[in-house]
Structures are given as structure tokens and as C-alpha cells.
Amino acid sequence: MAKEKKFVEEITAMEEDFAQWYTDVVKKADLVDYSTVRGCMIIRPYGYALWENIQKVLDKKFKETGHQNVYMPLFIPESLLQKEKDHIEGFAPEVAWVTHGGNEELHERLVVRPTSEVLFCDYYSKAIQSYRDLPMLYNQWANVVRWEKTTRPFLRTLEFLWQEGHTAHATDEEAKEEVVRMLNIYADFCENYLAIPVVKGQKTDKEKFAGAKFTYTIESLMHDGKALQSATSHHLGTGFAEQFNIQYLDQNGQWQYVHQTSWGISTRIIGGLIMVHGDNRGLVLPPKIAPTQVMIVPIAIHKEGVLDYALDLKARLEKVARVGIDTSDKTPGWKFNEYEMKGIPVRLEVGPKDIEKGQVVLVRRDTNEKIFVSVDNLEEKLIELLDDIQKNLYNKALKHREEKTSVATNMVEFKRALEENPGFIKAMWCGSLACEEKIKEETSATSRCIPFEQEHIHDHCVVCGEKAKHLVYWAKAY
Known about the structure:
Radius of gyration: 25 Å
CATH topology of the largest domain: BirA Bifunctional Protein, domain 2
Number of helices: 15
CATH superfamily of the largest domain: Bira Bifunctional Protein, Domain 2
Low-confidence stretches: 1-7
Strand order of the largest sheet: 3-7-8-14-11-10-9-22-23-21-20
Distance between the termini: 37 Å
CATH architecture of the largest domain: 2-Layer Sandwich
């Protein structure tokens, strides 16, 4: 017992120091390790397995909607980046420059890609000639670099992994349909696979993607009451097309500019997964995305027949779930703590007495409930249990978000809500940049989105008292 207790004590309680709790979990659960390069992380096999599962689901969804995977260069010539003024201004503080090749100074600096809009635009300007070439639906899985001042594993690192979709369309309406379609794919993925409830909406002009006509977003709420931008989908309009001369000959023989979109989700969503579902014992992973859904822990493994029985169970269950087995000589208590820390949804315990009774013990990670199940209908019960855990995690996260969502009609109420119940604040806004900036200046909260599902909670702006245009979700954010 002493060893088990000490193992859990190595995680700082989230109520004491949420930031340290997060760091403890990502390290102790073997998700990442720190690199010798400041702000860069080593994604360990267990963490990368999570990303592979995310990638597998989304890649299938992208291909089902007609997108093809491509790969663009890591480097962007400075002259290419300079072509879109708003875009370069938005990314200038975060770009990493390559100035030398070997011992020689380059004639033109290269940027290590912070995103790939301009690379796709350069390609599209050559590849698109006719309306028959459209729509051009591409996606790439890649790494990008943004020179962040403050870093934290998954949430904000100098280099991170993501996918970035880039598409070109004949009309503005088709591009808008694409932006909505991809945002809905992200929302469905977050809610039905990661069990993270999201708010769908539009970013304000201040918060939209640099160079975009508008940006749609899904926003989620972490356990500590801070928001996380979980994925974004951008309508780029014809701005990039005009700068890069991306035109097509329409059916009437007239040259037209294409309408573009871009959209993406990154490894920071793993940080969101940790902060939405984790507890003081470590990770809690939704079954649909967990690398291992069931871990078999044989009890009294040295006794005759136990190991063979456990291995037979593994072979059976592998037909319905992702199953692991721990046959090491470590104590059962150590193993229990290890797999609780890693957030494995179900632990299956089986020992000599269970074999005699024709049963196993299933332990839920989300509730710690122990369930005795006959081996005769084990597969059926396991499938039901994994489904119930998935639903329970979503409902728990949704309940938390609702409890941490406040309404404010003036700045006194706004500040009080942030102080007493940190989370989302729903408040009306007049649409002025000055009022948006005043909220950030006085509270550190930012506009998260103008939700598609609008409510009318007050006639006047929360800041200036003038006539309100929109309901906005506000929060402090990662």
C-alpha cells in the first residue's frame, strides 16, 4: 500500500496547482518528455499513439468528404510570405528564420512554416486553370513552428503536429459550405470521440485568422475554467487568390478568382483531452480514442493456469476492443496505479478464485466501480461498459461546462463571475473593437466566439451600454 500511495502522491492535486497538476500528468503518464531544445517536446509512444488514433479517425472523415492528402515543403521563401500583407503581419512575431545554408549566408531568408497558406497558394496559381480543376480539396499532416515565448507540453510548443486543410472553390458559397462542413466534422469528432462538448461559432474580427474573411471555431472549457480553441475553419475569400493570381476560366470563358478555405486541428487537442477529463489520479481517456481500452492484470500470476487463462481472455477480447496485458512480476497494486495514471478505461482483473467462479472483475477508470462479470457473456458486457464510459465522460464534461457558464449584463457582473465562477461568460456585445479590448485589458478574458445559436439575454452591450449586436462567449483561455 505504501508504494501505491506514494505513486499517486507524485501528482500535485489540481485544486492546489492546476498548472503543476497538468505537467505532472503529462510526464507521469508517459505522454511526453522534455527536449534539450527549449519549448520543444518529445512525444513518447503512448502520447503518439493518442495522436495516431486522432489522425486515423479524422483522416478517414476527410477522405470521405473528397479530400486528398499532399505534402508541402517545410520552408517558405521570405518573398512568398510577404505577398499577403495581413497574413505576414499576423505571424511575424512567431516565425523562425533560416539565414544560413552550411557556412554561407542565404541570398533570401527562409521561414520555417508556421502554416502553409502561401505554399498552397503558390502551387494553386500553377495547378488551377479551368473550372474543371475545381474544387481542389487538399489536406496535409505536418509539423509547424511558432516561436512562442511561454511554452507548455501539447498546449503551446515551438514545434507541434497538426493537419491543415487547404481548398479552392469556384464560388464564395461553395467555400462557405466547405468551412461549415469541416467545422462540423471537428465538432462531431470532439464530442463523439474525445467526449469534449464544444461551442460552435464565429471569431470576432480581432480574433480571426490573419488574412481570413472570417473564422469559425469550436471552443471547449477545461476543468480549471479556462477555454481552449479546439479547432478552426477559415474562409479566406479571394484575398490570397488576388495576391497570388489564382484564377480559373469559368464556363463562360471568363477569368475568375478562386475562393479558398483552410482549417486545422493540432496536438494541442491532447492537452484539452487531459484537462477536460483528467483527475487527481492521472489521465482519464474516452474509450473511443484510448490506445488501450482494456488492460488485463492477472492476479497471482505465478499460480498454475492463471497466465494461460489471461492470455486466452486477451485473444477473445481483441475481437471487440484494443486490449493489453501486464505479465510482469510487478505487484498488482503497482499495476493498478500505473494503468489508472495512464487513463486506461477498463482494468480487467482475474485470479485463481475468479477462474473457479467463471468470472472476471472489470474496474471502470471513470468511476472506479468494480463489476463482477461472467466470462460467458464477457464480450457483450465489455462493449456495453465501454459505451457507457464514453457517454458518462461526455455528460460529466457537459455538466461541468454548464455549471461553469455565467451570464453578465454589465462589467460588475462580468468581473464577479470571473472571480467567483471562472469559466465561460455569456454577455452581449455592441461589436466595437474598443469594448472587446477593454474587456481584455480589465479582466484578461477574450472573446471566444459569437455562437451560431444566439440568445438574447440583454438589450445592451456589457461594456458600453449601447445597443447590443451579438451574444458572445468570453473566457480566459490557453
